[in-house]
Amino acid sequence: MSAAGTAPGLPKILVIDANVFFAKRLTEALKKEGFEVTHATQSAFALTSLEWDTPIAILCAINLREMGAYELPKLLHSDIKTAHIPILAMGDGGDQALMEAFRAGCDDYIDRRVGPDSIATHVRSFLRSHEEGFQPTQMLGASDTALSGSLSHLDLPGVVQMLNHSRQTGALHVNAGSLDGIIFFDLGDVSHAEAGDMIGDDAVIHIVKNCNNSEVGVYKFVPGATAATRTVLRSATELMLDALREVDEGEHDVAGGGPQ
Fold first, then answer.
1. What is the torsional sign of CA 237, 183, 154, 35?
2. CA atoms within 13 A on the CB side of 189
3. Which domain holds residue 128?
4. Locate the Response regulatory domain: which residues (predicted)?
């Protein structure tokens, strides 16, 4: 493992990537964003230093030979000393990449094909949102009091994930085709949801299923809005995984000619 940048007091990023040339370019880009960077080519070796040299975030490739980004969350989240460290996965893109990272327990996914400078900027924006509140640039609306965007640019589970991780309180309004739903958050926890005649857990799953890979849906998050009652009892992660599992099962049935 080698450290690049030794300025004291700078927030530290741990980069785990076997491509030394790419990691060097990424290190330089991250340093320009104000980070100290530690690079390792192997996850197992890098993890041995976390307790005494804790980074503010881990940026890890998904295609490592022994242990990639998708394997890290189970290890880090099981230890109270490392459970708080955000894990950002890096891969070669694809429509389902964000969902795969989410299923694995990662906090974000970055397409490495956008280049080191864009990755470094994304990391800075992610950490600012993670630490100071939810305000990713793609979701900024005309008003400072409302965040909105198109579901063609970001899948709904990714929106829910960011609201959950940034511990937001408010209402997420979702419109996609005939679907008109609302999901309330209380300090990041999903507290209440409505979609037609459905409420609670079933409504959350219904909303996510019907917005999956939507090209026409829109969302709007209004901070501070609260629900009069609590109808959602399960965690956001459990609900998203159940919704995605039902989506996968539905796609499998269609592909196999089974019931839809």
1. negative
2. 10
3. 2-132
4. 12-127
